[in-house]
Design goal:
Length: 92
């Protein structure tokens, strides 16, 4: 499976404190492990949003959304609930 990151994703985490960045990295790692092994860690918070867009939780407030296809995962953006809602409103 191919893993991709949009530039917007990198920009969305660039401004965050290191502890929140680490939470995002761990959530992505847990999701990739889930894809590879089928074992889902508690707290991942995998949620289908619309079409091929999905969300995982990276802590209490932080969310990561991604586009899932048969052969790839593309991480789109990270943010709080309002950031994600705004992104989806303007892009999907």
């Amino acid at each position: 499976m191919r893993i991709e990151y949009l530039n917007l994703f990198h920009r969305s985490i660039k401004r965050l404190p290191n502890d929140r960045k680490e939470n995002i990295k761990l959530a992505i790692k847990d999701y990739i492990t889930f894809i590879e092994t089928g074992i889902k860690k508690p707290g991942l918070g995998l949620k289908h949003l619309c079409g091929n867009i999905w969300e995982i939780r990276a802590g209490i407030k932080e969310r990561v959304i991604f586009r899932l296809s048969n052969d790839s995962v593309c991480f789109l953006v990270s943010g709080n609930h309002d950031d994600i809602s705004n992104y989806l409103k303007h892009n999907y």
